[in-house]
């Protein structure tokens, strides 16, 4: 039996201690810090030879890890070109969802005069999907979710200049709200800045440590200027919780836990702020039924959109919509 999993390692240590219980009290006293080490290093990250102890501890404590300059300029420029081809409708990608800001009427890409604020589900676009398979990214992803890696959700976010109603904001949320699969700790998001991302153009805002909490109730925020379709926010989050603005340069990549509360501020610049992201889950994850949970509302919305777009009925489940999108990028697809 390999001892790569923290839980297995912990069990061995506990068994060992049971057999030597005479010395346990003094052992515990002396080695309290050792135990803190084991528990903190065990839950959210896996044994690996990439992360430094400081980086591991940082993710355990904060729920995110920022790696500077991870994706090359050449790769990002290629993703940008491909995105422009999609916006100009020079190529058509099966399954791709194109989203426009609820308030935007003018466009930087001419064909239909409305700016694309986000494309989702680019798993059938080989050029964009290269992002999800980049070995540099997967090496980090493996530290959080293990060697069997599924790309579950892909996005290229093109946050438009705010049209004056603050609709370019993304409310504070936990990505797990959208996911009917578990376990939660074997899911991670990689989010890469495609250009300088700062407070002016609406960088990510995170609540460090919020990944240690539970999944909160999400709903549309009551924003005067309106809010984008499916942009649910955490109903009540503690406004006193410290916030961190993640200012990033082109190629910088943040990995974060699906319970981390995060959002992004409004884009107060004339440029479209670009980022590319992928949510990964372990191939050993399993689907859950969200009936009777806080996720019922998003299940309902997703099913309505799928029904409208594809003319199908109740036979397509929330689980199906994820099972169809998921792509294996490394190792084995066991139960996903
Ligand atoms: C299959 C989908 C699964 C998604 C799972 C999400 C997973 C996320 C997981 C990861 C965590 C990520 C967390 C996240 O990222 S959460 C955000 C995720 N967002 C989405 O997934 C939304 C995807 N977008 C769409 O499905 C379409 O673009 C919609 C349905 C919005 C428009 O559809 P379509 O392109 O066909 O447009 P239409 O021209 O026929 O207009 C139809 C109606 O819609 C109105 N309208 C247009 N734009 C917007 C807007 N932006 N906000 C509000 N309303 C809008 C429009 O005025 C019209 O209304 P009316 O005039 O009839 O009243
Ligand atoms: N009422 C609200 N409910 C949920 N999330 C909110 C609400 N108001 C703002 N947010 C979110 O809080 C985060 C920070 O946005 P906000 O525009 O308030 O500040 P900022 O742009 O980060 O900071 P600043 O404007 O001071 O530089 C964003 O994710 C935004 O969408
Ligand atoms: O790029 C952003 O503004 C954040 C988007 C986000 O958190 C999401 O789509 O889940
Ligand atoms: Fe998110
Ligand atoms: Mg602001």
TrEMBL record:
It catalyses: 3-methylhexadecanoyl-CoA + 2-oxoglutarate + O2 = 2-hydroxy-3-methylhexadecanoyl-CoA + succinate + CO2; 3-methyldodecanoyl-CoA + 2-oxoglutarate + O2 = 2-hydroxy-3-methyldodecanoyl-CoA + succinate + CO2; dodecanoyl-CoA + 2-oxoglutarate + O2 = 2-hydroxydodecanoyl-CoA + succinate + CO2; octadecanoyl-CoA + 2-oxoglutarate + O2 = 2-hydroxyoctadecanoyl-CoA + succinate + CO2. Belongs to the PhyH family. Gene3D superfamilies: q2cbj1_9rhob like domain. This is Phytanoyl-CoA dioxygenase, peroxisomal. Pathway: Lipid metabolism; fatty acid metabolism. Its EC number is 1.14.11.18. One of its GO terms (cellular component) is peroxisome. It holds the Pfam family PhyH. PANTHER family: PHYTANOYL-COA ALPHA-HYDROXYLASE, PHYTANOYL-COA DIOXYGENASE, PEROXISOMAL. GO terms for molecular function: L-ascorbic acid binding; metal ion binding; phytanoyl-CoA dioxygenase activity. It comes from Neolamprologus brichardi. Keywords: Dioxygenase, Iron, Metal-binding, Oxidoreductase, Vitamin C.
């Amino acid at each position: 039996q390999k001892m790569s999993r923290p839980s297995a390692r912990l069990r061995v240590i506990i068994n060992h201690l049971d057999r030597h219980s005479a010395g346990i009290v003094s052992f515990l006293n002396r080695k309290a810090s050792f135990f803190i080490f084991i528990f903190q290093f065990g839950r959210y990250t896996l044994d690996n030879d990439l992360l430094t102890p400081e980086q591991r501890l940082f993710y355990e404590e904060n729920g995110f890890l920022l790696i500077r300059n991870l994706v090359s300029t050449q790769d990002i420029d290629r993703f940008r070109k491909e995105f422009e081809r999609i916006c100009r409708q020079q190529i058509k990608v099966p399954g791709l969802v194109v989203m426009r800001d609820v308030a935007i009427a003018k466009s930087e890409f001419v064909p239909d005069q409305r700016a694309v604020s986000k494309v989702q589900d680019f798993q059938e676009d080989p050029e964009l999907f290269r992002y999800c398979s980049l070995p540099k990214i997967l090496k980090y992803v493996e530290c959080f979710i293990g060697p069997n890696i599924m790309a579950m959700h892909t996005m290229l976010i093109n946050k438009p200049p705010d049209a004056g109603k603050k609709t370019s904001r993304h409310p504070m949320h936990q990505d797990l709200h959208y996911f009917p699969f578990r376990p939660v700790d074997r899911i991670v998001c990689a989010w890469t800045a495609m250009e300088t991302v700062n407070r002016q153009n609406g960088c990510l805002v995170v609540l460090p440590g919020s990944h240690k909490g539970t999944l909160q109730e999400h709903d549309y925020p009551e924003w005067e200027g309106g809010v984008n379709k499916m942009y649910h926010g955490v109903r009540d989050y503690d406004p006193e919780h410290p916030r961190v603005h993640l200012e990033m340069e082109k190629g910088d990549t943040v990995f974060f836990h699906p319970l981390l509360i995060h959002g992004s501020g409004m884009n107060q610049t004339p440029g479209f702020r670009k980022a590319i992201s992928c949510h990964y889950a372990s191939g050993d994850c399993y689907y859950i039924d969200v009936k009777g949970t806080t996720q019922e509302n998003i299940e309902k919305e997703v099913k309505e959109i799928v029904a409208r777009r594809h003319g199908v009925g109740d036979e397509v489940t929330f689980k199906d919509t994820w099972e169809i999108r998921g792509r294996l990028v490394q190792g084995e697809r066991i139960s996903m």
